[in-house]
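Action item from last week, closing it out:
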Amino acid sequence: MVFNSLGFFIFLPIVFLTYWLVLKKNLKVQNVFLLLSSYFFYGWWDWRFLSLIFLSTVVDYCVGIQIEKHSNAKTRKQWLWCSIVFNVGLLAFFKYFNFFIASWVDACALLGYDIKSKWTLRILLPVGISFYTFQTMSYAFDIYYKRLKPTTDFLGFAAFVSFFPQLVAGPIERASNLLSQILNKRTFSYEQCVSGLKLILWGLFKKVVIADALAPIVDDIFANYSTYPASTLLMGIVFFSFQVYGDFSGYTDIAIGTSKLFGIELMSNFKFPNFSRNVAEYWQRWHISLSTWFRHYIYIPLGGSRAGKLKSIRNIAIIFLVSGFWHGANWTFIFWGAFHALVFIPVFLMGRNTIYKHTVIGQSSVFPSFLEIGQVLLTFAIVSFSRIFFRSPSISDAFAYIGCFFTNPGYAPYQHPSGYRMLDYYILIAVFVIYEYLIRKDERQPFKFKYKAVRFIIYTIVIMAMLLFYDSNIDRSFIYFQF
């Protein structure tokens, strides 16, 4: 079940009304209902994979109790490794098994050994497995590092692991935030629900009007890159950057908004990354829940920035390579991660990796400075270039795409696959960028304007745009479902 489907718009009101009107007096019953609703939501894709979520839930619930139970450091670490081995093992089998086999066969071929492997399997990738395994592992880590006490409420913990708004594509929540809310009584708030509905509307706009509208163009350009001139290839890269941003941040907005309807606040996952002034700021604003997960559970345990420049560089490289591998079983993602490490390390060495941590572009003025505009454009160009590898099916395709800038130079007008005017898409992106700049200081208030008339006009435009750009022939699933 996807957020932008008819099924979800039937499912959500039923769950919402039952949750608040029928079950509001009993927290435990509410949590059981959330758990069953979440399992139904996930099982809509393939009920067989519910067993994986349940197993991951049971393992980390038991691991948490055992870590807390023992005071011996060696025993505690052994139980922590149980969580790591189990969850990483799930990922390794379902997401990376065929990748490892294929890489082994290719490596043997380079050495002159022709191995016809029969070990590849037709393995379906469970939706959201990279997200919920990281979420349950973080629970075990936090108990191990004594940041958290384990819960003995199994049903509450199971609801935390499978909470349907963020189950399949995040944010990757910490138990200290989400589990604590699930285990404590929640009260209905009209203001919170209205805020949630606004975020859902804005997320749907970004998905339907930005991401889905650009998808056919991006698909066409990347599938036929050798036939297009450099001007079209450049447009494909820029459009894909806006597509993946609209798609993923749109999902996050809907997830956060939906959670608000149930009295639960999720962490922010995107803070207008397209306005970042260097690559370090970009990673403080893009997929924040994953970036902070790697920072807290890999980067800092490795020594972080405390062990000297060389080890810090090593740790940064490890983080980005792991991040690339997390995204998918393909060398393109590993290369993408390595590229980001290479462009991040100089920023770190110059000591400029945290200078924009608490400010936004145009912090104290209406308009950004020329310097800020130049910084934003350069950062956007670097990030967009890296996405050639993110989007291409193989490393050879990615380099071939880049090569076509030199073999097919020049400009030619692009014809939309469906014959639509391209000018409309340029105007759409320009208006979207300007609007996001206006709301750049608060990602949770997309319609925060003083006058009701202005808000009403914006609501009308947003809804009309969704009706205009909606295309039933487009695959409406979210890009990050594949991760």
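Closing note: DSSP finds 17 helices and no strands in the chain.
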